[in-house]
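User: I'm putting together a small comparison set for a docking exercise, and I want a reference complex before I start. The sequence is below, and the ligand is FE2/S2 (inorganic) cluster. Could you produce the 3D structure with the ligand included, as structure tokens?
Assistant: Of course. I'll restate your input first, then give the structure tokens for the complex.
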Amino acid sequence: MPKIIIDAVEYEVEAGQNLIQAAASVGITIPHYCYHPGLSVSGNCRMCLVEVKGPRGVMAQIACSTPATEGLEVMVNTDTVKKMRQGVMEFLLLNHPIDCPICDQAGECGLQDYYMDYGLYTNRSTVPKVKKNKVVDVGPLVMLDQERCILCSRCVRFCDEVTHSNELVIAGRGEKCRIQTFPGKQLDNPYSANVVDICPVGALTSKDFRFKKRVWFLSTAKSVCTGCSKGCNIYLDHEKGQVYRYRPRHNAAVNDYWICDEGRLSYKVLNENCLQEALIHGEAHPYSTVLERAQAAIAHTLEKHGKVAIGALASPHASLEDNFVLQDLLGQVLGPDQVWGPAHQELGSSDDFLRQADKTPNRAGLAFLGISTDPEATQKQLANPELKLLIILENNCEEAAFDQLLQTHRPTLIYLGSKQNRLAQKADYTLPITNHAEQYGSYVNSEQRLQKVYRALLPSGDAQPGWQALLSLLKPQLKATPSYSDVEDVWGQLREKIPALKGLSFYELPEDGLSLLPTETEVLVAEEVGNV
Amino acid sequence: MKEVQVKKIPREKLNFWEETYLLPIFQGMSLTLKHLLKNISNTEQMPVLDYPLEKKTMPPGYRGKHRLTQRDDGTVKCVACMMCATVCPALCIHIEAAEHENPAIEKFPQVFDIDLLRCVYCGYCVEACPCDAIRMDSGVYTIFASKREDFVVHKEQLLNMQAQYPETARPKQGMPPLPNP
Ligand code: SF4
Ligand code: SF4
Ligand code: SF4
Ligand code: SF4
Ligand code: FES
């Protein structure tokens, strides 16, 4: 580990970093625009200029392309450095329209931020500003304003290096230099909206978020995208019970700095069609009434037809906690074989970068709990005419198999879901549960990574977390009733019953998730044990 | 402890007539009567307004009911930047932004409501506006309605308000230049 000296203080930093990264790792921010940790170094904005001591004396050098090597001595806060930053800011703003009142970036803009620290505050320019194109429609999700661009080339590098689709280019020379798409091309790759996040200014803005909200009104929660089984880490921005956008959250093991456009827009389902009331045959009734009647239906079926007449469908959309409580409590009532996985696959487009074909966030979580995820096995169970009562957790069930089930032997359906969908309407008893933005919970992604989501919103209407609703539903049948009042209580059971989660607690799960795959040492130990 | 210096003022001694209080009462009553007679014989001069038939003109700088200023073509000058809604201590400004068909304008408020029942007439919104789009120079201080909802004034109403004084009479506004750091 090399030692470097920043402003006369010695720090030990990781090898192989550049100066911006090394300084950041010890809590020193070096202002920068064109450098982005997920892209190659281009070194064109000059904002990161610092003074470096070299054999020929103290020289100005850009931090983004200076490797942090042993004995490097830099000054990041001298008057000269500040003056250089001020000069760069003045140059970048020379033709800038200063549209802040209409610019969606205002509030999270690199120009605004650094201007507060290094602005010149007096205008020395005597010539009119250069005009370029505004409101340029570059793609289905992205709006470009050429005047606001500082030509840092982050967006161009993203399209070259990350998506390899090369839609964007810097055209023209001198003051006519501008970002545009190649003639006849659109910025329409499946990851296109990431350029909005990486653009340090308001040149590339999101069409979907356009003018919806000023960013300083938004609160943020750490969450996980539920658009597919990749489980990209996100920030969920919301205000007054409404979700406004997803932004990628860095996780080197899953999504790096990016998310796909489909997932980015999947926040919309959180604002639509939320199930708020308990229903009986599609009609709203008080929660307690529905709960009592559903409990009575279970008791009646148990008494009349026995344990084999009841089954339950776990859900790849619900959290690990919900599925665990379903499996655990129902297992106590009926025995272990009556909880089945989903009856169908939900497949969509995929690629070799982030998007997965499986569009459910927690199928691996079911497998982890030992619930079969083979749709055919479940369908066979559902076709059994002995089945008299079916408890279904969070499902959209638009499938033919289900219709058939409803038409043939029509078991009593108890549905616990968060959406006003067809199943909520058709089920005999429907209880509202919270969605992933309204609860603490965890999901297992396709790479066996356990990731947690934080609660962002208050539950809509009467909705309760799934594990809580399940507990109240099954309470009359249980010999010893567990007292869950918090997700951590559920984790108390999870820790106890699942060896892989031993010693873990929900609130202490790392922010970037926890791999459930055996570590290399564990694999080696297992092999050793096997050999012996 | 330091001694406190106290200056003693001796009480004035009242004479016999003063002690009866009869004369001072008469003196006071005659003063009242004098003003009464003067006023009812000369109502023109009374410093009282015949409100609501007559209304007072407020001095420049008085913070009255808000108005939205217009561009030269009569459209709203506001660009829905939400500075006013952000700074408003009463949280009484509600704005919904929309796309303007002219790319040079780009953004305008589709909805601009002010709840005058909540407003505390602090004038922060006027100060915060970067576009001089909202002003409180209408001079209107009579805010009335028969229903709560009618106290919420909308964009059209705000746009149709007139300034009380011509532009030139307005005190010069705007931020002083920031100091060079
Ligand atoms: S890019 Fe930044 S500085 Fe430029 S108009 Fe937008 S918010 Fe203002
Ligand atoms: S559009 Fe944004 S990201 Fe692209 S070069 Fe301009 S400032 Fe940089
Ligand atoms: S005058 Fe004050 S309280 Fe009234 S709208 Fe403006 S900022 Fe809000
Ligand atoms: S009135 Fe002024 S401050 Fe308020 S939104 Fe309009 S432009 Fe912005
Ligand atoms: S960040 Fe180093 S030159 Fe732009």
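Chain B touches chain A through 20 residues (CB under 8 Å). The beta strands of chain B are 67-68, 93-99, 107-115, 134-135, 152-153.
User: Thanks, that's exactly what I needed.
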